[in-house]
Structures are given as structure tokens and as C-alpha cells.
Design goal:
Elements: H1 2-13, E1 19-22, H2 32-44, H3 52-58, H4 63-73, H5 80-98, H6 105-113, E2 118-122, H7 127-137, E3 144-146, H8 159-168, E4 175-179, H9 182-190, E5 194-198, E6 217-219, H10 227-232
Parallel strand pairs: 1-2, 1-4, 2-3, 4-5, 5-6
């Protein structure tokens, strides 16, 4: 009886992985260069540019927060709504012409599909941008999608991941998050989920993922991940 109780306690303390939650920009799709191009074009209309410090501070953050930051920093005479319309119009054209999958993305998605794991997308981007990406790259099978339009508090707040877990009907402790930004990893940690950082050396480094943004695993490509390896993080 004691052994059975100990076994049950261990199983409760270490729940198995049941779902994988994917970020979108910079994780599944190579969109970060397109965001930078669009942002430089729209800010160029006001005589300013999008610098490396802006990228570092805003990568993975809530979309509206990012626009507010830019308006305040550069003292732009424009509303968040109007700036968003300008930027999204430019992005739509760039997505249609240039958007592509990140290395290993399709292979890992297929492997998850062939397992018993559930999957979701949780992105700070507007829903229109996510739908454009899914259509362009023929990404299917994500029954649960949470976007920046669906939440009040963006990353690093855990709301987006907790909402995804709720829609998946899965305990947050049984979810694993794949992210490319420190803010996303921080949000996953706050949600009580396991996390994997996929580092893109063009925009971040391993050093970026320290402190509250420390993931359970760091890789430099989705192509280096397998379902078995993800499951191993829960053992």
C-alpha cells in the first residue's frame, strides 16, 4: 500500500506531457525579418527607424504594447490603431511574397501529429497575421489558436499560454511551450509549463535566456527536436 501511494504521489508531481504549444513568429515561420522590414518602412514615413535596441525590447512582446512603445519613444503623431493599419498592410504584402517556414518546423509538426500529443499555437500577433501565415504555408491541424486579439495581457504575462491550455483541456503542468523569445519563455515559466527555447542567432543568443527566462532546454533549430526528446523533459 505504501509503495502504491508513493507511486501515485510521484505521478502527480511529474505529470506526463500531453500538449505542445507553438509560438508563431520566429519559431514556426521566418517572419522576424519581414516584421523588421515592415516596421522600418512604416517608421520611415515619420523620419525614424527601427533599431537593434527596439528589436531586443519588443521581440515576443504584446503587439499593442510594442506599438505604444514606438509611438512614445519616437513621439509619433499617430494612434496605435492607425499605426497598426499601416504596418499590417505592408506586412500582408511581405507575407504573401516572402514568408517561409523555419527549418525543421514542418517535420516537428508532422511528428507531433503522429503522436498522441495535442498541439496549439499561441502568438502575440493579430489573428489576421496568423491566418495569413497559415494560408500561405498550408499549416493545418491546429484546433486551438490563441492570438494577441484574444488576450488582455501579453507576454511575459502567462495569460496566452494558460488560455491555450484551457482550450486544449490540458493541465498547464502537462504542456510544453516552444518559443524563440525570452519574454515567451518567461511567460511559459509563469504558466507552470515546461519550455524549450529555439535560439535564432540573427536576433538573440543563449545569454538572452537567463534568470526568469531560463528554459528547460535550448536548441538552435526545431530540426534538432523530436517528440521523444520533448517527452524526456517530463521524466
Amino acid at each position: 500500500m505504501v509503495d502504491e501511494e508513493l507511486k501515485l504521489k510521484t505521478e502527480v508531481e511529474k505529470p506526463p506531457i500531453k500538449a505542445v504549444i507553438f509560438d508563431l513568429d520566429g519559431l514556426l515561420v521566418d517572419s522576424e525579418p519581414l516584421w523588421t522590414e515592415a516596421r522600418n518602412k512604416v517608421l520611415g514615413e515619420f523620419g525614424v527607424g527601427y533599431d537593434e535596441e527596439d528589436k531586443r525590447l519588443l521581440m515576443g512582446r504584446d503587439y499593442r504594447v510594442g506599438l505604444e512603445y514606438l509611438i512614445n519613444r519616437y513621439k509619433l503623431v499617430v494612434s496605435v490603431h492607425d499605426l497598426a493599419i499601416k504596418e499590417q498592410k505592408i506586412l500582408e504584402g511581405l507575407f504573401k511574397k516572402k514568408l517561409k517556414l523555419m527549418p525543421g518546423a514542418k517535420e516537428l509538426i508532422n511528428e507531433v501529429d503522429n503522436s498522441e500529443l495535442k498541439k496549439a499555437i499561441a502568438t502575440s500577433s493579430p489573428r489576421s497575421r496568423l491566418e495569413s501565415a497559415l494560408n500561405k504555408l498550408n499549416l493545418k491541424g491546429f484546433s486551438v489558436i490563441v492570438t494577441g486579439d484574444d488576450i488582455v495581457h501579453g507576454k511575459p504575462d502567462p495569460e496566452i499560454f494558460l488560455k491555450a491550455a484551457q482550450k486544449l483541456w490540458v493541465d498547464p503542468a502537462s504542456c510544453l511551450v516552444l518559443e524563440d523569445s525570452p519574454y515567451g519563455i518567461e511567460a511559459a515559466n509563469k504558466a507552470g509549463m515546461k519550455s524549450v527555447a529555439v535560439v535564432d542567432s540573427r536576433f538573440s543568443s543563449i545569454k538572452s535566456f537567463e534568470g526568469v527566462s531560463k528554459p528547460d532546454l535550448i536548441v538552435n533549430s526545431l530540426g534538432h527536436l523530436t517528440v521523444d526528446e520533448l517527452e524526456g523533459l517530463f521524466e
